[in-house]
UniProtKB/TrEMBL annotation:
CDD domains recorded: Ubl_TBCB
Descriptive protein name: GL11533
Top-level taxon of origin: Eukaryota
Gene3D superfamilies noted in UniProt: CAP Gly-rich-like domain, Phosphatidylinositol 3-kinase Catalytic Subunit, Chain A, domain 1
Pfam families: CAP_GLY, Ubiquitin_2
Chain's gene name: Dper\GL11533
């Protein structure tokens, strides 16, 4: 795979499971890293109602597809070893595609709804994913609370205020807020920071659009949830001082 996740220390990962006939994330699972892909498909067969022998499993990080778990003898940890990923199960039984000139066989929505051996039927029968009203209400409530928290934190991020930025996998960085608002082509609110040190990724521009101006590698854009506003003086990195 071209973009493997770095191995972590835990023996397990937590991942979301989605499938080709359910456009919402259905449920979260905890999986051992030493689980073979063949055994993983058997577990997903129980969860999704698909067939392990014909299912295709893709690995996603956000909306980015990292690749296909196509080696049945490999362990899950070879492909992914951190939380927050998504396993997307493709129900190849419901849609067969042959080489041209044979046409692609597809089921209409009504035909698929009538099947008793489909992933959708299994989810309905077992009240899983979007067919579990209580679970979906919890998911929506969690999204609502997170959106409120993002808005609340964004209101504190006043331009020219000092701040400290904490992003998982990166050192804490201090800087000054220079932008608060949307980024073209992305959803949500972003906070533009000019860091005290060249620990950023840009100069205040994204994809050619200027949001603020700072020296190269001093700028960055993060979620309001990663920003703590306060009296954070620039850190002293002077290594020439006498100890």
């Amino acid at each position: 795979m071209a973009d493997l996740i770095q191995l972590g220390k835990s023996d397990y990962i937590k991942a979301n499971v989605s499938n080709s006939h359910n456009d919402a994330v259905a449920f979260e699972v905890k999986l051992a890293k030493d689980l073979t892909i063949s055994a993983l498909k058997s577990k997903l067969e129980i969860l999704t109602g698909g067939s392990a022998g014909t299912m295709k499993v893709e690995l996603y990080k956000g909306d980015k597809c990292l690749g296909t778990l196509d080696n049945n003898d490999a362990q899950l940890g070879y492909y992914a070893s951190c939380d927050g990923l998504r396993l997307h199960v493709i129900d190849t039984f419901a849609s067969f595609c042959f080489d041209a000139p044979v046409e692609k066989f597809e089921l209409s929505k009504d035909q698929y709804d009538k099947r008793s051996d489909s992933v959708r039927h299994y989810l309905k029968q077992n009240r899983l994913g979007k067919y579990n009203e209580e679970e979906m209400q919890q998911i929506e409530e969690k999204k609502r609370q997170q959106a409120e928290e993002v808005q609340k934190r964004a209101e504190l991020c006043v331009v020219d205020k000092r701040c400290e930025v904490t992003v998982q996998g990166n050192p804490r960085r201090r800087g000054t807020i220079k932008y608060n608002g949307p980024l073209e082509g992305k959803s949500g609110i972003f906070i533009g920071i000019q860091y005290d040190e060249p620990l950023g990724k840009n100069n205040g521009s994204v994809n050619g659009k200027v949001y603020f101006v700072c020296p190269p590698n001093y700028g960055g854009f993060v979620s309001p949830l990663s920003v703590t506003v306060g009296d954070f003086p620039p850190e002293d990195f002077n290594l020439d001082e006498e100890l």
